Protein 1
Amino acid sequence: MSITIRILHIVSGDTWGGAESQLFGLISTLSEQPDIDTSVIVLNHGLLSKRLNTLAINCLFIDEDKHSTLGLLRALRRSIGDISPDIVHTHGYKQNILGSLAAFFHRRCLCVRTQHGDWEIPHRVFSMSYVLRSLDLLSAKTIQQGIVAVSEDLAHSLRRSISTDKITTIENGIDTAAIERSNVRRSAKTENEAYSIAYVGRMVPVKRVDLFLGAAAIIIERAKIAVVFNVFGDGPKLGEYQKLSQQLDLTDHVRFHGFVEQLTGQLSKCNLLVMTSDHEGLPMVLLEALYLKVPVVAPAVGGIPAVLPREYGELVNEQTATAYADAILACIRRDAELRRNIAYAPCVIERRYSTTTQGLAYERFYRRLLSQN
């Protein structure tokens, strides 16, 4: 019989994106394991905390808006002392820094992180983002005992700065059972129905929604069929992208849906998913689209090339609107072929990228780390 291990996750919860989706799937899976005692500290109320509260776990809320940085560190330290975990598992810049420092005061517990994506390069040296990135890297190198990279490409990037011995690759997984329970089915496009292209993600600079809109303008001019573009997501640059859509004369062709909590039903109705990020780890929406038999156009960055063969879509090697438009047009021409090929994708995703596979890998990671320390 395995010894029960106590895991405490520290998360922000201020937004809902790929990292939060991955984390919820992981915690859901681990919470069902009888020999893993899971607790979570959430620093902001939001969809993540709402969903975590439906699980049979110890979920604590520490409102970061009501604490100074030092006060938040003290609160985390007290909570770690009360919970007495074997491992503190952090997610995100602030949580990595403060969580690892708080865990350091309790010498008996280890501290690990999941690196969901590569570090973004700060625009200015000694800006706040530069300071946070530097402190985050310092905590990874000197305090935390283990780093999980969500793709081998990301692990390779991290090895330039962090000891190879600390880094383990565990690929993201999606809850395929939950998708099946939602009973979504991709409906075939009728003869007179417009070809539907989706973007799903946060409205932040790294996601490069400007390239998606630029490609849309080119497609409208060049495509020989009716095309509609659906943008799902919210964030600080939403207003800017809506204005850009108007400037590109796309008002009749691009629909901004904002944040949609239950997205699988909407995504399953689309003919193509387009991703335009400058960099990625292993996007959850990519895995979900392939499981839903939706072809994908995506940049050849991070863990994407390992998941997306040409049978399921197109990889883009140049971050320009024209390159994305060319890839989209290629998928439109190959539509019948892609629909035949992608019928096999759910089996691949179920076998390699499910939350069950991911959860087992994390449990092995935790136990190996504890045995070594």
Note: Residues 31 and 76 are 22 Å apart (CA to CA).
Protein 2
Amino acid sequence: MTEKDLINLDFTRVDHTKEEWGGDTDWYCYEYEVGDICLLTQANDEIKNDEWYVEIFDYQNIRFTSRTELEIFITLLVNNYREDDSI
């Protein structure tokens, strides 16, 4: 999956400064939120050959590398999200 795919899927770029994280360089990642679920990419300085992936925050054992599969997952989340817990 490319950075352009993430942008086309409406992911939001989140910029981080080296001062904020105590690193050597500034970096950014992408995120997409549906309710309490946050989908996150790795940092841009970890990218090789424009191959991005997306994980569910706090569930790094689930990883999307295919834009098509990610798009299906997002569609399912968005179409089934309820604002409240009432049935």
Note: The chain has one domain: 3-80.
Protein 3
Amino acid sequence: MRFHDIGAPGGPTDIHFTREHAATILEFVERFPDAERIVVHCTAGASRSPGVVLGLCDLRGWPTSDIERMKPFWNSLVREVMAAMRDV
């Protein structure tokens, strides 16, 4: 999966994180209901992947404070799009 680490409209070649990206992630996670650990990574692990993880936590009701503290630069757009999937 590929998308840029941007939180607002940018250039014409920027790939924004979309509901389709979020749906793909959720479909993958749901294929392994008995998994005890989920590993999410990106190039730096500072913004996109923490945004995905925090969105998953929001959806599942898992605690977020430790992640928010350890990864303070998480991508808010990614988290918002992930968390909005509860309405789907």
Note: The chain has a mean pLDDT of 86.
